[in-house]
Design a protein that fits this description.
Layout: E1 8-13, H1 18-27, E2 32-38, H2 43-52, E3 55-60, H3 66-78, E4 87-92, H4 108-138, E5 145-150, H5 163-183, E6 191-196, H6 203-209, H7 219-227, H8 234-245, E7 255-257
Parallel strand pairs: 1-2, 1-4, 2-3, 4-5, 5-6, 6-7
Helix pairs in contact: 1-8, 3-4, 4-5
Length: 262
């Protein structure tokens, strides 16, 4: 890649819609290489990248196949020249809400897909990111590295009929804390945050509001937040998340909320 200035490398999952798409739009700047990994590519992003003169890679990749996704990422990262990069960041944003209902009503295939996309894939992609960029550091590269996991308040507060999603997000918080402890042993370790982005007006919220009241006791809370205008737009939420990513104290608090004071 013959780019005029050392660019920032950002890898983003779940970039085809919702807050992920909003983050991708905001990250498309000439001084960045942006790799978006989603189930499908987005034509709007391709046009926007061309308009802005930004370097965009998009992969159509099912994150439920975490092994394939991780192997593909390892090959791609291995093809880059670290000396040409100013920094490296991985944002694990993708997540899945399966059928809304008690655990006994959810098919095993749906449970497996939710946990693979929401927890297994972030683990696998983070492992590759840590390993390959760690080799860059061993070879003399000194750029900052960041790992941002998009968590949720539901990873920290149990809710009936949301077992798989709550479990995936709670696991993301815990794995972030484990990795942070590991990376603290290295002088140029990766800074890690598992960040709750607030309540966002996305397709996931539509799905929650459309649940069966008999099977989802908390449905009224989600309907009420929409009716009272308490949901953040994907664009505003993305801006807050990316601003948190740039905070000088990023990583000081591993399990964090976008509303935490600086």
């Amino acid at each position: 890649m013959n780019l005029p200035t050392p660019p920032h490398l950002t890898i983003l999952t779940g970039a085809s819609r919702g807050m992920g798409l909003a983050m991708a739009r905001q990250l498309l700047t000439p001084g960045r290489i942006l790799l978006c990994i989603s189930r499908r590519t987005n034509d709007e992003l391709a046009v926007l990248a061309q308009t802005r003169g930004a370097h965009l890679e998009q992969w159509s990749q099912d994150l439920a196949d975490s092994q394939e996704a991780a192997e593909r990422l390892e090959r791609w990262l291995g093809s880059l020249h670290a000396a040409e990069l100013d920094s490296a960041t991985l944002i694990n944003n993708a997540g899945v809400v399966p059928h809304i209902g008690p655990l006994g009503s959810i098919a095993a295939t749906d449970l497996a897909n939710a946990l693979r996309v929401g927890l297994e894939a972030p683990l696998a992609l983070s492992s590759v990111f840590l390993r390959v960029t760690g080799r860059w550091v061993q070879q003399g590269w000194s750029g900052p590295r960041k790992l941002l996991n998009i968590s949720s308040g539901l990873g920290r507060r149990a809710m009936a009929s949301q077992t798989a999603y709550c479990t995936a997000k709670a696991g993301m918080d815990q794995f972030s804390q484990c990795v942070a402890l590991e990376e603290a042993q290295h002088p140029q370790g990766v800074r890690v945050v598992s960040l709750a982005p607030g309540v966002i007006d996305t397709d996931m919220q539509v799905q929650l509001r459309g649940g069966d009241p008999a099977a989802f006791p908390d449905i009224g809370n989600f309907i009420g937040m929409k009716d009272k205008g308490q949901l953040t737009s994907p664009e505003a939420a993305a801006a807050r998340v990316l601003a948190y990513l740039e905070r000088p104290d990023f990583g000081a608090k591993v399990v964090a909320d976008v509303r935490d004071p600086a």
